[in-house]
Amino acid sequence: MTHDLTLPAAAAEGLAERAHRDPHRPRFHFTSPGGWLNDPNGLTHRNGVYHLFYQYNPLAPVHHRIHWGHATSTDLVHWTDEPIALVPGADGPDRDGCWSGVLVDDGGVPTIVYSGRHGGRELPCVARGSADLRHWTKDRANPVIAAPPEGVDITAFRDHCVWREGSGDGTVWRHLVGSGVRGVGGTAFLYESDDLNSWRYVGPLLTGDASRNRGELDWTGTMWECVDLFGLDGTDVLVFSAWDEGTTHHPLYWTGRYKGDAFTPTALHRLDYGGRYFYAPQSTCDEHGRRIMFGWLQEGRTDEANTEAGWCGVMSLPRVVTLGGDGCLEQAPAPELAVLRRNRVQVAAGPLTDPYTPLHSVRGDQLDIETTLRLAPGATARLVVRETPDGAERTVVEVGRAHDGAGTLRLHRDTSSLDPTVDTEPRYGELPLDADGRVDLRVLVDHSALEVFANGRPLTARIYPTRPEAAVGVGIGADGDATLERFDAWQMASAFTDGPRPLWP
Ligand code: DQQ
Fold this sequence. Notes:
Layout: H1 15-21, E1 35-46, E2 49-57, E3 67-73, E4 80-86, E5 97-106, E6 109-118, E7 121-129, E8 136-138, E9 154-165, E10 172-181, E11 185-193, E12 199-207, E13 223-232, E14 235-244, E15 248-259, E16 262-270, E17 279-285, E18 291-297, H2 303-309, E19 311-312, E20 314-315, E21 319-323, E22 329-333, E23 341-346, E24 350-351, E25 357-363, E26 366-375, E27 380-387, E28 395-401, E29 407-412, E30 427-431, E31 438-446, E32 449-454, E33 457-462, E34 473-479, E35 482-492
Parallel strand pairs: 1-19
Antiparallel strand pairs: 1-2, 2-3, 3-4, 5-6, 6-7, 7-8, 9-10, 10-11, 11-12, 13-14, 14-15, 15-16, 17-18, 18-20, 18-21, 21-22, 23-35, 24-35, 25-34, 26-31, 26-35, 27-28, 27-34, 28-29, 29-30, 31-32, 32-33
2,5-dideoxy-2,5-imino-D-mannitol binds near residues 39 and 158.
């Protein structure tokens, strides 16, 4: 089957130009050329090239008739737009959208397993690609699983994690499909296949308890989107995006043991304290053996503002994920990003004696800030970014150490924007601290995209100052006994060449 590549150009006219002009558009995070972007898909590193596919609507900044966009990079920093990989069919099971999925190597044939959407439900589909991953042919047999498991009252059935397991003649494909059992909780259904086309249902790998912690930041929801299973240093990790109709969107992970047909969890963790601002992540093991993860930074402004802007949705920076000594994941931006650093500015080490001091030598809306702080019990240190000269708009990152030693990472966005229609809810989470109260804090500012890493814990968010050109101030300060041990800041160059990009490369 060949795709119909005819773009109703009139519908999308001016989108890429508007997107390019928007001052809130990031310049070193990946964004689509215009229109809508959501989940990372089909992430892979092949012959030295990273392939990032993504949920894409090139016609409008709305989640509708989703295609698979495609971009490639050799350094995880600079991206080249590739031809759109999957287009919803004129008929067939994906006529309403090609939803999230993964890419596997089937004996040398790149193969996408994705969710075809039609008539309000999703079913697993397969497409096979050319060696350069530029041309895709959908399998005539789609959907390859005709219906969800029988006899289970499910909340949804979509998204895929597929891997090859076993050795010699005993190898088999295994496949998780995200779902939820109504009245019980989110789950991932396990399937097995010899050829990626005909699948045997094995059973639920693990099922959450939706009656536990309902509404809390670690509630596991009524459905698990975008499940991702991988091993790291002897620990198995099951990442999922906890979902509930209209209420919950946040990424979580279980650590534990995957053995046989089950995952036995030892602990549940929050993956990113930004919640929906780092959603539906997917990871891959790259050719250097690193676990690389991307997530989708949702917008925090209104649908009308997105329409006016001509684009929406940001891909996170690539993250290297490792296992920390405390059994939790540690995340850090890929070191390759350092190639964008310019004009290093250092601030002298010493005690932070004032609640706030503007740093006149550091300014910008594309910044990478790396600092080490030491907090005594009862101390709070803050880093302010995107501040207007009158201080009316400012975004505050805070790290604190309570008298009992507990650490907290907090993002205050209540003054991030004077626009009352944008989301300014705070975000917070636990910060692991050693006996010395040391905090390694990294803050990356890219227009409306903000990624914070504190002792390996990430907090991602969006901010939209109403005077973006003026909101370039940076400052630091503390309450209590806090010391600045190191502070380096760089301007970050843009990763994209200037000018609008073709919506339909
Ligand atoms: N987005 C996709 C779904 C997935 C959701 C549709 C997560 O496949 O469950 O665009 O953001």
